[in-house]
User: What shape does this take?
Amino acid sequence: MKSALLLVDLQNDFCRGGALAVNDGDATIAVANQMMSWCKSRGIPVVASQDWHPAGHKSFAANSHQDAWTSGELNGLPQVWWPVHCVQQEPGAEFHPSLNTRLLDFVVQKGTDAEIDSYSAFFDNGHRAATVLNDWLKAAKISHLYVMGLATDYCVKFTVLDALAQGYQVTLLTDGCRGVNIEPHDSAEAVEAMREAGAQIGTAGALNG
Assistant: This one.
């Protein structure tokens, strides 16, 4: 079984001071760096997803004339209206400056279609279009993914569920994840949903000894 590490959206806008900052999101960066070093010492490739929205993305509350953090519908799909975040070529879309990006083997960008949101690193929210991630993993003969990142209850959750649906074995590293938690128990419920779908639940700390 060949593994890869998948880091989900470890970007400035999801960390302290960012437009869509996740509580304690910065704590994931040290875990990611530690995991990347562990992986590299074992020949395990490292992949990162990057939220990469056009400025006119319709999931942004400002572009759809909605109030941020409320819910509605976009192109027939449930939608949370988000603050403007991770705009292409803007500082907020860059990886956190402390992330050791020289250890990344591949970066997949998502959320590039202004008409539909894209939490998963594999597909948009309607599964209408795929990213290049699955193709890259298949070419590298990857069958198992370690997954961590931001945020537990959105992009991590949907990435893991899509990975499982496509036949990958998945280990979720919970100490490398933090959640948005619009509702207090969202992250806990997301972890349980991933577990029920077949993900193994572990920690980077346990792997690193």
